[in-house]
Amino acid sequence: MERGENAVRNIMWGMVYTVIHFVLPLLSRMIILRVMGRLYLGVGGLFSSILGMLSVAELGFSAAITYSMYRPVAEGDTEKVCALLNFYRKCYRVVGCVILIAGLAIMPFIKYLIYGEYPNDINLYLVYFLYLINTVVSYLLFAYRRPLLQANQRNDVESKVATVIMFLQNIGQVAVLIAFRNYYLFVLVMVVTTLSSNLMIGWQTARMYPMYVCQGSIDRTDYQGLKKQIRGLFLRKLGDVVLGSVDNIVISAFLGLGMVAMYGNYYCITTALFTVNGVVATALIGAFGNIVAKESQEFQYKEFRVMNFLYVMFMAFLALCYLCLVQPFMKLWVGVDMVFDQYTTILFVAYFFFYKWCDMLWVLQEASGIWWKTRFVPLIAAIVNLTLNLIFVQCIGIRGILFSTIISVIFVYDIGYLVIVFRICFGEIASCRGYVFRQMCYLFIAVVDMSVCMWLCRFGPQEGVKCLMYRGGICLIVGIPGLLLGASRFSEFDEAVSYAKRLLWQCVKKYQK
């Protein structure tokens, strides 16, 4: 059960980070909005998206190196881990330089990506340059040591570091805005804390794993294997980056920075939920990587079914809370004039749900290292998304951005991963149809549960803290039992309960020693 204990520890600390990652940026965005104005929020969202696009230069080295470390770490092959680490450091230094050069090349065209007005009391090029430096710093220092933590199933260490850094960054940014009303200092605090984060990761990994140093070279066989994986990961990375970053750029170019700010407020909530799911998924990658390396396909599929069931039910509850709570929360947080209508909000919830409901396929892909086989799926999804974005944004505005992403995720992303991952990882022992049927059943349960809860929300307060408390109670008192009642009809439910009991008992025994 050591795999499970590591996963629980990683999830627990990941959740602590997620709470900090959710609460403090809300405070920071609120202060920017009230002290500086919505256009500054739009500037931050646009520049983050542009540099997110440039991060495609990372090519997927991190995932490839992490996967390649699973077996040598498990077998105690220190020499091979050191060689992989040395190779990774060289790659990241090249990547940092490429991003810096590409970012500087884009700088003259920044104003052409903004429709309408923008803040006239700051130098957009200087702000962009600070954002660029913040991105480059991550690659030129100790970020290459992060895969050591994931390969050893110690994501909790990174979560602890990230929690401290996130706290210091947001408190520092709020302080400089209130004290100096200076956006340059606001961005500079982000650069300093990013630098500090990498230094702390370098120190922690050196202390925990002193045997792993950057020395030696990987052999030709390993190099060829990595080269193939990275080529596959590059296409996947390109697709993922475009899919995640292009929306803000299109909104800025067609609808303006003000709409980027409004979209960013909702996307901030969506990203927080993505982070919650990501903590769970990332914690499971290490456990599944160990299972894939040691266990049979039958055992892998059994674990996959149980974990997928738990994951989707958890995600359905998050989607329920999102739907019921986001509108009254937005009115309290940023004001009525920054709130979208209910139909647009439903599209945000659908965007979150359909983007994440097949995440366990991604976990299985990461743990199995089959990026080459799935390399075209995210790229095709990104092309479809960008094409539909450019069409729909001119017809139905912000709803077109969300609708195009939902279409590309469901009909390209989810289906593509399903067919390829199932065929390779499970062969003849599992059916894609069976998985689709289960997912549709889970979706039906989630939709019915959300509909009942939203109907009940109509009878309580509609604004303020009382509204949040009433709707939160509905989610807990009605939403959770509703999901459990619907889920109890599946065989996975009993297996999941049994698994949770065993895991809890093992953890209790461990901490009683």
Shape: globular
Amino- and carboxy-terminal Cα gap: 16 Å
Rg (C-alpha, Å): 23 Å
Strand content: under 5%
User: Unreliable segments (pLDDT under 50, ≥5 consecutive)?
Assistant: none
SSE series = HHHHHHHHHHHHHHHHHH
Give the beta-strand count: 0
Q: Major sheet, described briefly?
A: none
Quickly count the helices.
18
Estimated helix fraction: over 70%
* Mean pLDDT reading: 83
Structural class: mainly alpha
Explain this structure.
- The chain is an all-alpha fold and 513 residues long.
- It has a domain at 49-258.
- It contains 18 helices and no strands.
- It is globular and about 55 Å long.
- The model has no long low-confidence stretch (mean pLDDT 83).
